[in-house]
Design brief:
This protein has twelve helices and 22 strands. The strands form six sheets. Strands 4, 5, 6, 7, 8, 14, 15 and 18 form an eight-stranded antiparallel β-sheet that branches. The protein has a five-stranded antiparallel β-sheet with strand order 3-17-16-9-10. A three-stranded antiparallel β-sheet has the order 11-13-12. The N terminus is likely disordered. Bound molecules: zinc ion. It comes from Carnegiea gigantea. This is PPM-type phosphatase domain-containing protein.
């Protein structure tokens, strides 16, 4: 098996805005340089990624540049992954007022990410297709990194000082107790796949391994059950990871998945951190990497290497550890001080980078080779993972003074007040209720919110 790149990694790039927008404020560098690389191995061809290093907060003003990197790990088809790749960024940006200052923009970004994820999910479901996708969506503006994620494609941060932290939360039913409780409370069932059989019982009982530790009860206590029905012995194997039913998905959050319960929600976990001006490295990857490598192992495997080579080495390490069992995609993003960029050392054999990388250097990656980086503190600005939109969208709402129309906090469509409801309003208006406390949702988005919380079924209106 050989490593094949799906897309050749790009060299580190300095967005044009850097040259114009580089400022010194109180002696501190305003914006870092972004270097990045990407590598992938396809098994099913359902992983997609987005690299946009040169977005502009104010169109036409290059000093307002920011970068977006994302991974979309599709399942049951590719359409949800492609749709999210093409629409999510614009849906997020549409939820932030155009006249926001940079500080306001960063402050509103976590809420806009929630709105953008939900809007994208509603729009995809209107297409009537059934595939789904994880999303890990990273926005880098200066030293501030904001990560929004649904599913199990992780993003880790290596501050190059030996500290590796996880910026995402895995929405896997197997590992996330809170999500299991939420799904169950919203009307879903959580369990393993049942496989029925009769003959298998005799084989188990008479199997030479049956008296060994291979079949000790502790190993099977939650994965197998045997029922006696009349004279027939029916064996029910419960296999694989925990899934939710209907649908049988292992994930509790995703975009798409029209054919599973509405308790599979598109509301992302969002974390926003500010790096010190020594910078850091992000590794964003699909579960093909994380099922093979721990966060620390992935970070250590590529420390000291430029981002493009680092991405290839992480994929190579995952392949060596577990084989190619799933689509495997990795983005490595370096956030580097721009005045005195400290670039990692370059491999010696420039003429044969790959053989050098995978042979010689991989043997020496166990320790950090770069001692030039100081240990930088990471300031945590924001973290929220609740699936409840009332907790995620805040209490502001926009009313157009001229038209009197209210703007939906999710889809951003202006509607008359009586065509929608405040998120906090109950089913009946009472003197004690505060119907307009909280963001306004149009009728369709309100239905979606209620369906996600198990209050009623949601049938998306199919677009023509
Ligand atoms: Zn709406």
């Amino acid at each position: 098996m050989t490593l094949t790149e799906v897309t050749r990694a790009n060299p580190p790039l300095v967005p044009p805005g850097t040259l114009i927008g580089r400022e010194l404020r109180s002696g501190k560098i305003e914006k870092p340089v972004i270097g990045y690389g990407q590598a992938a191995l396809a098994k099913k061809g359902e992983d997609y990624f987005l690299i946009k290093p040169d977005c502009q907060r104010i169109p036409g003003n290059p000093s307002t540049w920011f970068s977006v990197f994302a991974i979309f790990d599709g399942h049951n088809g590719i359409s949800a992954a492609i749709f999210a790749k093409e629409n999510l960024l614009s849906n997020v940006l549409s939820a932030i007022p155009k006249d926001a200052s940079r500080e306001e923009w960063l402050q509103k970004l976590p809420r806009a990410l929630v709105a953008g994820f939900v809007k994208t999910d509603i729009e995809f479901q209107q297409k009537g297709e059934t595939s789904g996708t994880t999303v890990t969506f990273v926005v880098i503006d200066g030293w501030t990194v904001t990560v929004a994620s649904v599913g199990d494609s992780r993003c880790i941060l290596d501050t190059q000082g030996g500290v590796v932290s996880l910026l995402t939360v895995d929405h896997r039913l197997e590992e996330n107790v809170e999500e299991r409780e939420r799904v169950t409370a919203s009307g879903g069932e959580v369990g393993r796949l049942n496989i029925f059989g009769g003959n298998e019982v005799e084989q188990l009982v008479s199997h030479p391994f049956s008296s060994s530790s291979f079949l000790q009860p502790k190993m099977f206590e939650d994965s197998i059950s045997i029922m006696v029905l009349g004279c027939n012995l029916l064996c029910v194997f419960q296999v694989g990871p925990l899934r939710c039913w209907p649908g049988g998905l292992c994930l509790s959050r995703s975009i798409g998945d029209t054919d599973v319960g509405e308790f599979i929600v598109p509301v992302p976990h969002v974390k926003q951190v500010k790096l010190s001006d020594t910078g850091g490295r992000l590794i964003i990857a699909s579960d093909g990497i994380w099922d093979a490598l721990s966060s620390d192992a992935a970070a250590k495997a590529c420390q000291g290497l430029p981002a493009d080579l680092a991405a290839r080495l992480v994929v190579k390490e995952a392949l060596r550890s577990r084989g190619l069992k799933d689509d495997t995609t990795c983005l490595v993003v370096d956030i580097i001080p721009s005045v005195h960029p400290i670039l990692p050392p370059t491999p010696r054999k420039q003429h044969n980078v790959l053989s050098s990388l995978f042979g010689k250097i991989s043997n020496s990656t166990g320790k950090s080779p770069n001692k030039l980086f100081a240990v930088g503190a990471v300031e945590e600005l924001f973290e929220e993972g609740s699936a409840m939109l009332a907790e995620r969208l805040g209490k502001d709402f926009l009313v157009d003074r001229d038209s009197g129309l209210f703007r939906c906090a999710i889809c951003q469509v202006d509607q008359p007040a009586n065509d929608g409801l405040s998120i906090n309003s109950g089913p009946f208006f009472s003197p004690s209720s505060k119907p307009w406390e909280g963001p306004f949702l149009c009728a369709n988005c309100r239905k979606k919110k209620d369906a996600m919380e198990g209050k009623r079924p949601f049938q998306p209106t199919i677009s023509i």
